[in-house]
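anyone else get weird line breaks when pasting these?? whatever heres mine. first is seq + tokens for prot A
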Amino acid sequence: MQVSFTSNGPETPLHQMDVRTKMLISAAASLVVILLKSVPALALLSLASAGYLMLTRRWRVMIIAWIVILLLWITAVGFMNLMHLFMPKMGASGMANMLIPFLRSLVLVNTLLAMALSTRIQGILTTLRSLHLPYWLYIPAAVMVRFLPSLVEDMRQIAEAIRIKGYPLNPWALLFSPRRTIRLFFVPMLFRALRTSDDLGIAAELKGVGYGDRISRFREQRFSRFDYGTLAASCACFILSLVINAYSKVTTFMGM
């Protein structure tokens, strides 16, 4: 149950960053992307959040996450064009309109993964507890954040087991042998996800839930210069993206 207690991978400056900084960036990103309706503005945030995620140095996880999002976007575009082919009255959405939800999802995934891959569950619990939230609220929140890297590790282990057995594991196997792929990969993933969620819940309880007044952290929560610099850079990116979004609206209005 090592994955329940700490993040796998190399120690980076992002691991030393205060948990509150990561939570503020994730919360601010989730609010800003709702306001943005311009592709250039969202593209700027996507690139900035990708650079932020790269600080974790978890290249394999990053590539897998980006490929999954790209495949989902391609699937959505394909189905929209298919609907337009059979129902012309529905109308085909432009590429810009289809890019907007994709870029929004990319920003949210980047910021959330950066926090999940570089934060210990103890830090998440302490930060959420400092907000004076009830334990039935911050325990599921902490488990959800730490569930992402645990799920990635489970996927890697199941994929290795399938390859050891001599079965192919690729998109073609899912297309031509869906029943076998579901039986070998998705069913074990379902049971592993349930087991992992239980393990993470137990790990969270072992961190002192219900005894908040009697325990103390080994490291005190303090903002460092790197935290202040990251927050300043994040605020600059958010403000710049809002300015670009407003400029795009004015340009579109003047063009009309």
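and prot B, same format (seq, then tokens)
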Amino acid sequence: MDIQDEVLTILDEVLNLAGRSRAFVRETALLGAVPELDSMAVVALITSMEEHFGFIVEDDEIDGSAFATVGALADFVQGKLNG
């Protein structure tokens, strides 16, 4: 499973998308486009990614652009894993 697939699985679970994330591609818009992704869901998503991937997200290293698209979120996770 690659990073994007893992991110999609987490999105599906945290946002209760009932499998809708399987249709998402890198260019799929998230923030502002997926109604389930509100501010509380962002916090839950960050926590789930921290637990799943074993990294810590500091408050100053993330902003809305990381949640703009599936690809942006996968790239953010990849950057955390590389860094």
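btw re prot B: Residues 39-53 form the longest helix (15 residues). The chain has a mean pLDDT of 96.
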